[in-house]
What does this fold into?
Amino acid sequence: MLSGKGFDNVINVKGGIKAWDGHVAVGTEELGLELLTGKESLEETLVVAYSLEAGLRDFYLSMIEKVQQPDIQNLFQKLAEIETLHQNRIFDEYLQASGKKVSREDFENDLVVNAVEGGLTTDEYVQMFQPDWESSVDIISLAMSIEAQALDMYTRASERSADPRSKDALNKIAEEERGHLEQLGKLMNDRM
It folds into this structure.
């Protein structure tokens, strides 16, 4: 399944998921899909996606003040910048799709989602993984978990979307999440 979704290096664990002792995807198959029911227009889909990116960006920025090590603060800043780039692309796509000439501020006033990518709140992710905030490996692992949940959620939302334009947008966002995972993987390799 994963190799069919573009992952080049897939490793099978002897004994399957029952033998795995690392982190696994969490929640039900419907997790996060209350935000993307499949009935949204392209514009509505992009607003939700932007909201999710904004939630994660805000979380990363809030963590900068809570950690002591400068390299960990820089890591959170880098993670926030990745989300900002994704927000910029989604906003540009919204402007193009809607034909509206709306300011970023007015656009952001329409955001209604209080969750981060993957369908959980940041507090739920923190409670679930309980990372050591002074460990870059723990922080990158948390970020990878969030991005993996997001990739899964956007893929599932795309599969159920009735609007072909929304389906295409969700697939594009899912591919960007795959790219985020690759960036985080490189960061992890640099830290180990």
Q: What stands out?
A: The domain at 38-191 is CATH 1.20.1260.10 (Ferritin). The mean pLDDT is 80. Residues 48 and 113 are 7 Å apart (CA to CA). The chain has six helices and no strands.
